[in-house]
Write a structure and sequence with these properties.
GO terms for molecular function: cysteine-type deubiquitinase activity; proteasome binding. About 35% of the residues lie in helices and about 15% in strands. It has 40 helices and 36 strands. The strands form ten sheets. Strands 17, 23, 27, 31, 32, 33, 34, 35 and 36 form a nine-stranded mixed beta sheet that branches. A seven-stranded antiparallel beta sheet has the order 1-5-6-7-4-3-2, sandwiched between helices. The two termini are about 55 Å apart.
Amino acid sequence: MVVEAFGYTGSASMPNIEKSSRPGKTAPRLLADLYHYDISRTSTNALIDFPAHHYDSKPDRAAFPSPPHSHILLLKNEQSDLISHSSPDTRKRYIVAAVCQKCRTHFDVEIEYPRGLGTSLCGRDNKDFPLHHFQYSESFSGVFQGEHAPGSRELEDKRAFKCSSPVCSASLCITSKIPMLDAKTKQLLDDRSLYPGRAKLAEQEFPSEDFPKYYPESGQFPVPLPPSQPAQALRALHAYLNNCLHDIKNGASKPIHRRNKRLLHNMGYDADQIFRKAHYKLDIVGDDPKGIWKPPYLSDQVRADIQDILTELKILSQQPAYRESGISYVPPYADKELQRLLACEKYDTTYQGRSSAPYEFMPRYANLGAIGDFSDDLLIWCFKRQIAVDKQNAPYYLECLMDFATGRKSEALGMAVATYRSEGYFSTSDVRDAYKALNLDPDKQYEPDVIIGNFRAHVSDAPRSEAQMRQALLMIGTSMNSQAIVQAASKGPMNVSQAYEYFGAPSEIEPSFLISLYQIKIKDQPSEESAAKDALRLIANKLSSNILTDFLVSGNVYDQPLDVSMAYSRLEADPNMDDDSLIAVYQIRLGESVNIEDQRQALIVIAESRKSDVIRTFLQRGETVPGTGRGVLIQGGRADWPVGLDNIGNTCYLNSLLQFYFTIKPLRDMILQFDLYQEDMNEEILQTKRVGGRKVTVNEVEHAKKFVGHLRDLFQMMITSKDASVKPEAEFARSALGGSKEETKEDQEKRRLSVDAPPPVVTLDDDLDTKMDVDNETSQTIDDGGSEITLVEKFDTKTTDEDFVMIDSDKKDSVFSEDKENLPPRAEPTANAVRPVLQDIGVDGAEPSHVSETEGPQAPPTPPPETHDHPPPIPPRPAPKSTTKHTDFTLGRQQDVAECIENVMFQIEAAIKPEDHDENGEQVDLVKKLFYGKTKQSLQLLGSNEKRSKIELFSHLLIDVADGSRDIYSALDSVFDVTTVNLEGKDTIRYLSISELPPVLQIQIQRVQFDRTIGKTYKSTAHLKFLETIYMDRYLDSSDPLLQAKREEAWAWKREIVSLERRRAGLTNTSVGLDAPQTLDAVRSWIEEINDSEDKDLLGDAPLPELLNGLDTGIKESTEELNEINERLEVLRAKTAAQFEGLANHGYRVHSVFIHRGSVSFGHYWIYIYDFKEKIWRKYNDEYVTAVTDPREVFEHLDSNNPATPYFLVFVREQETERGMVEAVQRRIEEEETTVMKLD
């Protein structure tokens, strides 16, 4: 039962909710959030969440994502227990039950006062607590099982709150429930196409004599029974359920025969679903094979559910489609009762009166638990309450108060800010200034040791500023809650009492428990280890404790056993790992010069806790399966497991890429046998060598051959190494990321001058000239004096002091920097990628017209500033300048995904002999055969029979997720769908198809987007749904007229969808936040209210009846139009999704998924690769290669507010996976080179 989960049942009192340490919300704020609460939203919860802290004062920053609508709450009198007097009886529990007129979500808002008569009520008459200040209680909140009928709303969302006033015991519970009549059930009433079948069913079940005959005016022959209408069906259902509650004889209402003329005519057997929701039971009795619906026993819950269905039917009866139902319903609004319940009917407001600012545009008010119309004094009171319950965030709350003082130009708020500053409070601006005073970037995160070291260096350089620096350090330490920094800011060392306070422990605590607190401290805050040891040492010396002293010396606690959680911590392993993965982690730890006995002891404890025979066998015999040699304990690695790659400084993406290439067997074999494939250094041959649309120079070939030689050595190490991971050479990594030490200054100048040289095959943005002359030569010849540039070096790569870097905190031996990690892909697509047809289409005089969407050509969107072509670098941290110079790239630089791929591919192609040449002289080789396909671009001038086409190479398809989550077919459709461009003043249709599919299909996901409103790039974390197998048939160039007809039909549907969505947006996105019918209804209500008030003169001489009739007509017509649009959109989307079902001849299996976690300016990459032989996914995360136990980890990526998201997908043709083109594991470790460790 739901209430039991809350600790109470029936009408008993609510649970004794404890106060929390969370920030709180005033009653008006909580009520405002309730009006915008979307029960279906899982990312943010307006009732309990607070907006993210921000450090600017932009008025247009949203507090929360815009809700679908603002609830219009109607009171459910029969389920409410209202406050009838001016003040509540604190011995009672009160409830306001309400339902939204728009979405029919139900809310129960309950309040009680557990302290009873001893409660001092919050409210306007209470000077100290003019409002309730509610804190969320997580312990008594959540989604719980209810007592509703099967098929109805079986779950309820409950949120509990407690007033933070020390003298008020108000406990609040808000229960949200989805509609009883969900969308599918409502469709049974809405769908007019169902009614003729029901009428026919009624005629079949009952002979014609049981019905009146229907005769047309011009004849005597009978006609079919006319179908019922939604309004009649709704009236019939309302009558049946209303009788259940009110027409009761002998304790129960009448049963309903399932084979009932009226019921069948109106609802058919679809009525079964609604009766089940109303708790009716189907009973087969007597000679009626269809049975009867027996009314339920009316318990409180059953009665409430039936009342809710009746209320929802009444709400529907007010909609245009049901206006003829004849149900009388005057909706009572719940606003005043909710305000009375929460004691916020009246409170001090600003002199302008209640704020009209949109709900979502008040984030700092929301953070303070306030709303925009609070008076200055009330805002100051909110600040006091927030710092009382959430002192940790006091700097931000003071920042909010400062912002209000400035925005309102309020002397009272300004004086309050000054007073709090004098009492030692500081704002987030002060903290940021403190970072700057120590020459630290306030937008970065630093370890305490770094901050303290920076402070000491500044004091050493400028002793006179010590007091100022110490104050800045104290401010930073307090804001970080770092005792180490606070201690460093004070002049004296920590004493014993401060040491106990540091651990949050009483002085009488046992040493063993103190050690546990120490271990928890450094586990949660590793940067505090030094300060924690100092504190523990002070206590050990004070107590002369051998236990504490031995622990500080050896790290072992000899008088207490190792528990399971500490065993996992010692191994640095995830408790959710399977046994094999855990053993792999154990082996890696042994290769890190750790205490072997400690690691073994931890594994023994875990084996016993799991009762794992696999781990026990491994500990006894050095293998996981007796007699098989499986899992042979090779020092640092396994013979049947892929090897990892060490991160040597911003190489996590390169590592992922190399792991992917290693599994492509033809490519790997060619690299390992490079001597057979390498290019001859023959000047005559090199004169004709073209890769990437240009000639390749001698210097580039020499450099590329060295690069592939390094790659061959690395692949060989990955096969034969006995270690769990191998380290790529620094020179190789630098070369892979785009640099070349062999380049001269002259070469670099050539690179700079020829950056815009066209490739031999054109992309969608470069091929369309103003004459559509696709038969002319598609590239210009570039001689050796032309370009040294690879396809990927599109920006100046000179090393300067401003080179941007990223912090890699988990690497100790980075050869060039400790800065991590790689930048997500640039917003600009790369040369050989196929771009979405509808993106960046206006080139060479061709502008997008989108004639299918508008009446005429549209101007192209304003392009972003040039300074934002690439994601912005983060500022450099203070560090000594390196004396080592590199021509272009260093390993510390952030790197673009596609740029790295193309650079590696270019160098491999430059290093190997061609197998053939295409018509443009472009080299054809194994890389082209594996990874490159061909697209066909088709062009046709409207009003002309002339058609042109062009064949283009592509290495990967570029898809977009800028508009939100979507599936992979929807994303690919955006690449291949038809569009209309304006060419030479004429509309021209252009679309793309695939003329040749590659064996390995690569898809890049464009996640870096540009927000023109703020002038910045950002990373889209929208989810891309993809399956294990995709089918590319729908995108193939084909002469099949049926396929083309399907495409054209789908294109027409999509054009209609765009048009309908645009019209719907016009009807729903109004400046007041309401849709068109709601706006007109609000205007109508306002006119009626003004007409009944003393201000009726405002209406002038307007004819009121005609005005109201006109508004009613507008409400009816706009509501009907919205309903029709929504119905049509649903039909069109279903048709589009099913259009190509059954086309499954060209299947591709997913092979690799490149993942990025982070933002547009920092983050980390790893890759998932599927082993088709072992049928498992593995995660390759730099030096760690682990098995994936749950495939949802690969496909869903919905685990947090900043989820790990796919950036690059690789699919392999189905037939090739069966032929062995991909091979995930290739290890050949010689027995004599294998070191088997003795674990006994």
